[in-house]
Amino acid sequence: xxxxxxxxxxxxxxxxxxxxxxxxxxxxxxxxxxxxxxxxxxxxxxxxxxxxxxxxxxxxxxxxxxxxxxxxxxxxxxxxxxxxxxxxxxxxxxxxxxxxxxxxxxxxxxxxxxxxxxxxxxxxxxxxxxxxxxxxxxxxxxxxxxxxxxxxxxxxxxxxxxxxxxxxxxxxxxxxxxxxxxxxxxxxxxxxxxxxxxxxxxxxxxxxxxxxxxxxxxxxxxxxxxxxxxxxxxxxxxxxxxxxxxxxxxxxxxxxxxxxxxxxxxxxxxxxxxxxxxxxxxxxxxxxxxxxxxxxxxxxxxxxxxxxxxxxxxxxxxxxxxxxxxxxxxxxxxxxxxxxxxxxxxxxxxxxxxxxxxxxxxxxxxxxxxxxxxxxxxxx
Length: 380
Fold this sequence. Notes:
By secondary structure, the chain is an alpha/beta fold. The chain folds into two domains: 2-186 and 362-379, Rossmann fold (3-Layer(aba) Sandwich); 204-359, Glycogen Phosphorylase B (Rossmann fold, 3-Layer(aba) Sandwich), CATH 3.40.50.2000. The chain has 15 helices and 13 strands.
């Protein structure tokens, strides 16, 4: 079996981590796997770190540099690469690749067999509506493209049940052509650092991820003054970069919290930052999956999140973490206070979460399930 993974890449996020882990596993199982990276020159700085990782993992990679998200020339280049490579199956990731391959299958190569992994839905939609399918409409460009491309795709994989329900109940996909395969990664073993520079305060909270409205940083910032009444030395660490940084800094300034909120920017040692904090907070409005949750489990630090998809699929309330009724800031505050005062409770949650990570969210399990899909598609 020979498989080509296709994706437009801008930076190292969840779907890129998926490729970096999945492709070497496929090779180890005897499945020849290659990666086609489509990128724009303006995104080169974000693409370069991924290419370094690709070399480390000996992934066979091909590149197409384009100045357009969609053009006849781009489709022809992809189509020619596929014909030259004689692939049995194309594995697309995200909406651009889905659209390109659906068009190529329609106009150039009707025999293509396509498997698509859905890592998320449109960020603006999820920020406003979460996984509510009732707000989907053909007048939304993202919906129209998803719906049309899905008709040409042989089978789709979603990384969470919440995402699966959105695609099925929103009538983008049929239940016979889609299944959920949660992420599974063999995250590196983390050893606690004895004298870490990542501990900045006696009580420390951390949020890790892109600075997007969808990630809900603002909810934690708003309750910080009340937390400081009980824990005067507390600090909130915000790790990551993104388009919401300026507005979050402005909110922090308006609330006179500049000394208590630390923007660290992008960090490579997120496990150490998590491990040195008392709680990892995930106040997202919704998540396609949430690799950050698995990273928190691996860091052996207790997690608090809103009870929304997909965090509520990964976290078992009061066993592997704490789920708060969506956007209830009073309960969020009370639960953080309770956990900051209960070290044994935090350690129990962290241990249970780590055990769950190692027993279920594994690369072997995920790879086995993806190969099942490949075999089903090729046999059909």
